[in-house]
Amino acid sequence: MLITASYKKKLSILILVNKDSFSHFTDQELLDRFYDNHNNDWLGILLERYILLLFGVCMKYLKNEDEAKDSVQQIFLKAITELHKYKVSYFRSWIYTVARNHCLMHLRDRQGKIPAPIDENLAASDEDSDQFNQLEKDQLLELMTNSLSELNQEQNQCLILFYLEKKSYLEITENTGFTMMQVKSHIQNGKRNLKILLDKKINKTHKH
User: Fold this and answer.
1) How far apart are CA 81 and CA 122, in angstroms?
2) What whole-number distance in Å separates Cα of residue 31 and Cα of residue 4?
3) Is the pLDDT confidence value at 126 over 70?
4) How many domains does the chain have?
5) How many alpha carbons lie under 13 Å from residue 67 in its C-beta half-sphere?
6) What is the value of pTM for the model shown?
C-alpha cells in the first residue's frame, strides 16, 4: 500500500491535535467519544499515544528504520479505516495485533513467503523463555509509551522528533519554533523525566 503525500499530510494533522486537555482520558473513553460522533480528532489523540509502541513493534519485525516508520503510518491509516467500520473493546491489544499482522504481511511480500506465526497462547514448549522475554519487551515498550505521553507537550514533542524521527537540533528548532537552548533543555529534561516515570512504572509492575 503506497502512502501518498496527501495521506501523509492528513495523518500529520490528525496526530498534532493538542492532547494535553485529554491526557486523563482512558483509551476506552476516547474510543467512546469517537463512536459517539465519529470525529477523527479523538482517534488522533488515541493513536498518538501509541507511536513509540508501534514503532518498536515494527522495528522488532522489520529490522529497518525507514520501513518501520512507513509501517506506523500505514497502521494508523488502517486503524482509522477499520475503527469507522466496527467497534473495538480492547484497543491496546487490537492495535498491537494490527501492527504485528501488518509486519508479517510486509515480510511475506519482501521474502516471498509467510513467516511462522507467533504463538499467542504461550504454550509450554522449548520456546517459552524466548516468548516470555518478548512479552517483557512488549510490556516495556508499552510502559515507555505511557510514560512519554505523561511528559509535558514540549518535552514529548522534542523527544519524538529527536529520537524517533532522527531530527537534528537545528531541524527541531525549525519545526517547533523553540530556540536551540530550549530544544536542548526539553530533550535533557524529557530524558530525565521519562526515566523517572518509567522506573516508577517498572517498580510498580514488579511489585504486582
Assistant:
1) 31
2) 27
3) no
4) 1
5) 17
6) 0.52
What band does 137 get if pLDDT is binned at 50, 70 and 90?
Answer: low
The phi and psi torsions of 116 (rounded to 5 degrees) equal -60, 135
The residue segments making up the domain with residue 72 are 1-119
Model confidence pLDDT, tens digit, residues 32-60: 999 999 888 898 888 888 888 888 888 88
Q: Are 155 and 116 contacting, i.e. CB atoms less than 8 angstroms apart?
A: no
Q: Domain containing 20 — which CATH number?
A: 1.10.1740.10
Amino acid occupying residue 206:
H
Dist. CA 128–CA 119, nearest whole Å: 10
Backbone angles phi, psi at 122, to 5 degrees: 50, 50
Residue 69 is assigned to a structural domain of this protein:
yes
For range 140-158, the mean pLDDT = 78
